[in-house]
Amino acid sequence: MHGYELKRAYDQRLPQVRPLAFGQVYATLGRLLRDGLVASTGPERLTGPDRTAYSLTKDGRVTLERWLGTVEPPMPYVNSALFAKVVVALLVVDVEQARAYLIAQRQAHTDRLRELTALKTAPSATVDEVVAADYAIAHLDADLRWLRTTLERVADWHREVRA
Amino acid sequence: MTKLEARGLVKSYGPTPALRDVTLDIDEGEIVAVTGPSGCGKSTLLHCLAGILRPDAGEVSWRGHRIDTWSEAARSRLRRTEFGVLFQFGQLVAELTAAENVALPLLLAGTGRRAARAAACDWLERLGVAEYADVRPGEMSGGQQQRCATARALVTEPRVLFADEPTGALDTVTGEQVLTQLVRLARQQRTAVVLITHEPRIAAYADREIVLRDGAIDHTGLGLDAPLSGGAR
Fold first, then answer.
1. Is the pLDDT assigned to residue A69 strictly greater than 60?
2. Contact, A10 vs A20, CB < 8 A?
3. Segments making up each domain of chain B, as ranges
4. Start and end of every ABC transporter domain (chain B) (predicted)?
5. d(CA B34, CA B202)
């Protein structure tokens, strides 16, 4: 597969993920080549410029299968800017600042939830798009539940943080 | 011109107030979610808007005509023609097949038997349950029943569909499939939808959200169980 084809497959199969630059594709292929995980089958010219095709080596396939079989640690840390911002607001400003932030963030989350729902319910939506939107929707929904319960608890939390 | 308007709706059950001065407008083809915590008056509001309940005070108007003063027979006729209603549990007639259930509103409105059956089968097809046309509700899953109930609610091509927690009894995947189809079909035929839910991800199917709290519209849009007060909680 050529770098260009890889980039196209990435865009098509992983919609809604952080965009991938062409430079990043070639830099990553370079590292995989250096580590012996992919092999270059040499430049070829169909129409247009020369293109190098790459394929997985035996080591590359073993590494890929190991990665696919490795369970991701389920949320080992509460590593969220949302959580951190509320704590910092309570520590260095006041409960109103924390509350104002929670309300504004809740609105932004709700708007994005609506946007993604419109995307997945459009008659032209592909299964790729529906599955990707569902992933984001489930996470936004979880955040929204946290934002709501935290809004109700923020004053108690403030007292504890300031005690 | 299609517009449903409520002005100053008040409704109580004995000494318990359910709606306190609710005013809202719903435009043609608009999908509006009504959300809020349990017991905030969502279902009572839907029942008043759909002409099922009469408010104690206030007005409900449809295309400029007050309907809350109409007789039960006239309001019932409106629900058979221009309004459609869908509940959490489909409330299909157990003795009738899916196609007979879906054809029922058309038969009541005077459509001939053959045309009603054809329209019913067409709507079952659109909801993806055509193969259950001759099956009774008892032999269908909850999701299949709710698809039939959705077909029955839309078969008259109502101008407003009132849906009270329409996916509340379904698992997440089935619920979302039913809702996706409902919203697509409603948008296609410009049917306005009043969608009652307490789930943010269901409310996100709507164009707009109205939040109720203690029987009144919560203009903060937060619908929290307790009021926010500066550091007191």
1. yes
2. yes
3. 1-80+198-220
4. 4-232
5. 10
- Same domain (yes/no): A31, A63: yes
Cβ count within 10 A of residue A45: 8
d(CA A137, CA A160): 32
Instruction: Check the CA dihedral B143-B149-B153-B155 and report its sign.
Output: positive
pTM of the model: 0.83
How far is C-alpha B167 from the chain's CA centre? 11
CA A48 and chain centroid, separation: 34
Contact B165, B193 (CB under 8 A): no
Q: Do A25 and A54 meet the contact criterion of CB atoms below 8 Å apart?
A: no
| Closest B-chain CA to A114 | B204
Residue A91's contacts (CB-CB under 8 Å, 6 or more residues apart) are A161
Mutation target vs A (from B30, B211, B222; most A CBs, 10 A cutoff): B222
A62/A100 same-domain check: no
Residue with token string 């009652």: B196
pLDDT score, position A123: 86
Please state which architecture CATH assigns to domain B1-80+198-220. Answer: 3-Layer(aba) Sandwich (3.40)
Helix orientation angle between A81-92 and A95-121, rounded to the nearest 10 degrees: 160
Distance CA B31, CA B197 (A): 13
**Enclosing domain of residue A134:** 81-162
Position A76 in a domain: no
Residue B56's closest CA among B111, B8, B125, B122?
B8
Q: What is the pLDDT of residues B79-111, one digit of tens each?
A: 988 999 998 876 899 999 999 999 999 998 899
Partner-chain residue, chosen from A106, A123, A156, that has the shortest CB–CB distance to B233: A156
The interface predicted TM-score of the complex, written ipTM, equals: 0.80
Chain B: give the shortest CA distance to residue A15, in Å.
20
Phi, psi (degrees; rounded to nearest 5) at B184: -60, -45
| Alpha-helix runs per DSSP H in chain A | 3-13, 22-34, 58-69, 81-92, 95-121, 127-162
Closest Cα in chain A, distance from residue B55 (Å): 32
